[in-house]
Write a structure and sequence with these properties.
CATH class: Alpha Beta
Strand content: 25-35%
CATH topology: Heat Shock Protein 90
Largest sheet: 5 strands, antiparallel
CATH superfamily: Histidine kinase-like ATPase, C-terminal domain
Low-confidence stretches: none
Bound molecules: adenosine-5'-triphosphate, magnesium ion
Distance between the termini: 23 Å
Structural class: alpha+beta
Strand order of the largest sheet: 1-2-3-5-4
Number of strands: 5
Length: 129
């Protein structure tokens, strides 16, 4: 499922849909809450730093487990220093700078591709525990 992110309403909608999706693959309340935090933080960054973009989520599975792949895609100015952006309290927007490091802590895999030419593409994988 792909959702265009342009306003705060879109963030609430995306977060709600992702929680339902996570629930449908058998995640418990703590897990669906984590999924919702991940998608909200990524979507807030899209609005704040790129104005608009997309989030999408899909099911990933192995023979043993299932999980959710959450992606955030925008054509904004890109993340200047990815290493710094993953550190606590680094923010170019004058806020707490805890979004990406928080996602890194609660997810299983965080991959960031970001260049001024291609924009920002973030992939987060979260497995059912
Ligand atoms: N989609 C994006 N496009 C461009 N830069 C981004 C994007 N997402 C994050 N960044 C950069 O990475 C930094 C860290 O992001 P992070 O979400 O951790 O913190 P924040 O958004 O500044 O603060 P918080 O999420 O705690 O309110 C941002 O300050 C910004 O410089
Ligand atoms: Mg943020």
């Amino acid at each position: 499922m792909t959702i265009r992110i342009k306003s705060e309403n879109d963030i609430h909608y995306a977060s709600h849909e992702a929680m339902n999706f996570a629930k449908d693959i058998g995640m418990n309340t703590l897990e669906t809450t984590k999924v919702s935090i991940i998608i909200s933080e990524l979507a807030y960054n899209i609005i704040k730093y790129a104005e608009s973009g997309f989030v999408r989520f899909s099911k990933v599975s192995t023979h043993k487990n299932e999980g959710i792949l959450i992606e955030a895609i925008d054509n904004g100015p890109s993340i200047k220093d990815i290493e710094k952006a993953l550190k606590d309290n680094y923010s170019t927007g004058g806020s707490l700078g805890l979004g990406l490091p928080g996602i890194k802590r609660i997810s299983d895999l965080l991959e960031i591709n970001s260049t001024p030419e291609t924009g920002t593409h973030i992939k987060v994988t979260y497995w059912k525990k």
